[in-house]
Sequence to fold (250 residues):
Amino acid sequence: MLGLPISAGIIAGLASGCQVPSMPPLPKAVRAILESGLPPENPDVFHAFLRGSDAMPILEGPEAQWAVVADPPARVEATPDLLRLISAPGHPVWASPRLPYAPLQSVIRAGDRTGRGPWIEDVTWLASIAIHQRYMIVCEVRFAGEPGALLIQATPFDVQVFQDPDRPNGGTSTSVSRIVDRGEPHYWRLRLDGRRFEVFIDGSLAWTLEGPRTLSRIAFGETRTDPLHGGAIDLRDIVYVRRPVPGGTG
Fold:
């Protein structure tokens, strides 16, 4: 698997050939970032590919803000306000931002009667998905101190949340009654508050995993693939915010 250089030719081709769908209003988290004027180096905040941005995220090299993999003919295309991952059956393509994750030891503190850690973690993004085969992975999530991954993937009929067999109580797949593969933008949100992990789609709670956790990695796109996987995903307005739990012990 090879990281794909993001060349000027790719950017020019994307800018000229990309059909941008009608965008919903800016999510609250994105609007707050834009209005706050927080610098990208803020230790508790990460944002990339914001609508209207003219700053190109660094995708390769020693100062890269992302880890990017594309196994040809799968490919990555990018402009300052859009990251596009185009997969092919049997060829992984994914992008993982280097987020300022909460430290593992902050999940639970002694004497915290609420059972919550000192941090809330929020990851939000807009995604437009087109499935060319049967499945398209939206994102892979890993938690600090836990084995295995959690996959959120779209099909023509639903959204599925799959837990690797080596995860605690893993080896399960849950169907969420949402259809997100028709090329329209949908607002996704992952939230951890020290008590549970929650997945929201278009503002509605879709799936919950109980227990205190912190993120250790999120990767968008086809981190694993087979002949039934293939499609394209457009990502915009990617925001990560880490903030103290009100009244927490941190």
Notes: DSSP finds two helices and 15 strands in the chain. Helices lie at 8-17, 28-36.
